[in-house]
Design a protein that fits this description.
This protein has 401 residues and is α/β, with parallel strands linked by helices. The chain has two domains: 250 residues, 3-Layer(aba) Sandwich (Aspartate Aminotransferase, domain 2); 131 residues, Aspartate Aminotransferase, domain 1 (Alpha-Beta Complex), CATH 3.90.1150.10. It is built from 14 helices and 15 strands. The two termini are 43 Å apart. Bound molecules: pyridoxal-5'-phosphate (PLP). Pyridoxal-5'-phosphate binds next to helix 3.
């Protein structure tokens, strides 16, 4: 198999199962059972992982709250800010969540849901969409639109395109009239692929998911800075310093710590540059072999492993399915539901037409990929695309005649 879908999930790092397995057998203590050794050992294992993760994302261990993954961390981040959305405002404006058009559905849906919890109260919440500028940075808002913003959500790098959408001009402008907001930045796709520093980020809240950097699925973390007004909502049991109740998943947390150590080492050893060489070679070969291809965000700041491209005359989902028969895994930008094809919202937000957006494919490189795989993948893509273009052209000419 040639696996080129590392933004969906990554291949587990070497040694993951052997590091995790003792915590599924002999080392089974409950970390809250501090009266005896087995419990204390489990607690120590968790705290060691917390430090390993803190070192990868450059934050203090106390800022880390383990969760069941990125989606839960995102949900808890919004829920912990619910009180902020209930604060009364002046008569001429309402509380707002300003959210970029290219956010992951986990962020979009959590924002909408949390906003709906405030309706009928003293203050209701509006969602204000942040458009994407032609230079791919986050767009500005009018003075009135900026009033009452309590939460800003803008991801670091996009999962579909790999593009970094710079929010700094937007935030600088917002700061001049209203600095009383929490900035949520989603670096889920960035961690392990480039160096990420939570302490240097403007965000007060961020999230991560272990399976995006070689760790197990079902474990992630919410990162909350000390100056944040975020409050715990998922209580019970007092775990995670009362910020996320429930007995911790020791095996998965240990696995996350192991993946964090590996990710830090591989970044220090030049992983970002190595993976970029593969991505750039792929794009160069693709453009030289197949006509009418457009690389989304080419020349802009992107994740070093991600290539999103539009291929005229085809449907991305069909290409992805066809190439899977050759044991090659790549992803398409469009989602099919009940027989219809929905174009990627992200590509539409970037200004692409529906026809272009449904042609999108995403190749995302990761550990284990090689330069030798590139000509094989491009050759298969070329065959499939030529066949599909021919079929679609003849369908079209039949319709016209
Ligand atoms: N945020 C981004 C940018 C993602 O790509 C994903 C997953 O693909 C998530 C959040 C959600 O993470 P998880 O599926 O691990 O809950």
């Amino acid at each position: 198999m040639i696996y080129l879908d590392h933004n969906a999930t990554t291949i587990p790092v070497p040694g993951l199962s052997s590091v995790v397995s003792p915590y599924l057998s002999s080392s089974f203590g409950n970390p809250s059972s501090s009266n005896y050794l087995a419990g204390r050992e489990a607690k120590e294992a968790i705290e060691k992982s917390r430090e390993q993760l803190a070192s990868l994302v450059d934050c203090s261990p106390e800022e880390i709250i383990f969760t069941s993954g990125g989606t839960e961390a995102i949900y808890l981040s919004f829920l912990g800010l619910l009180d902020r959305l209930k604060e009364p405002t002046a008569a001429d404006f309402t509380n707002k969540i300003a959210i970029s058009r290219v956010e992951h559905s986990a962020v979009q849906d959590a924002a909408k849901y949390i906003a709906s919890l405030t309706s009928g109260g003293l203050a209701s919440t509006e969602i204000t969409n942040l458009e994407i500028n032609s230079d791919l940075s986050i767009g500005s808002l009018t003075l009135d639109q900026q009033k009452g913003i309590k939460i800003v959500a803008s991801m670091l790098a996009n999962n579909e395109t790999g593009i970094f959408h710079d929010p700094s001009a937007f935030l600088n402008s917002l700061d001049t009239i209203n600095s009383d907001y929490e900035f949520l930045s989603d670096p889920v796709q960035t961690i392990g692929k480039t160096n990420f520093s939570f302490s240097k980020s403007r965000a007060s809240i961020s999230f991560l998911s272990a399976h995006k950097f070689g760790g197990p699925k079902g474990i992630g973390a919410l990162l909350v800075k000390k100056n944040s007004k975020w409050k715990p909502s998922f209580v019970g049991g007092g775990q995670e310093q009362g910020r996320r109740g429930g007995t911790e998943s020791v095996p998965l947390i240990v696995g996350l710590g192991h993946a964090a150590v590996n990710a830090k080492k591989s970044l220090a050893d030049g992983y970002e540059e190595e993976i970029k060489i593969l991505r750039d070679k792929f794009e160069e070969t693709l453009l030289s072999e197949i006509k009418n291809i457009e690389i989304v965000g080419q020349g802009k700041k992107r994740l070093p492993n991600t290539s999103c491209f539009l291929t005229s005359g085809v449907i991305g989902g069909e290409v992805s399915k066809a190439i899977s028969l050759k044991d090659i895994c790549i992803s398409s930008g469009s989602a099919c539901s009940s027989g219809s094809i929905n174009p990627s919202k992200v590509l539409v937000a970037l200004g692409y037409s529906t026809t272009k957006a449904i042609s999108a494919l995403r190749v995302s490189f990761g550990h284990g990929n090689t330069l030798e795989e590139i000509p094989i993948v491009v050759k298969e893509l070329k065959n499939i695309v030529s066949e599909m273009r021919l079929k679609n052209e003849s369908k079209l000419s039949k319709l016209m005649s």
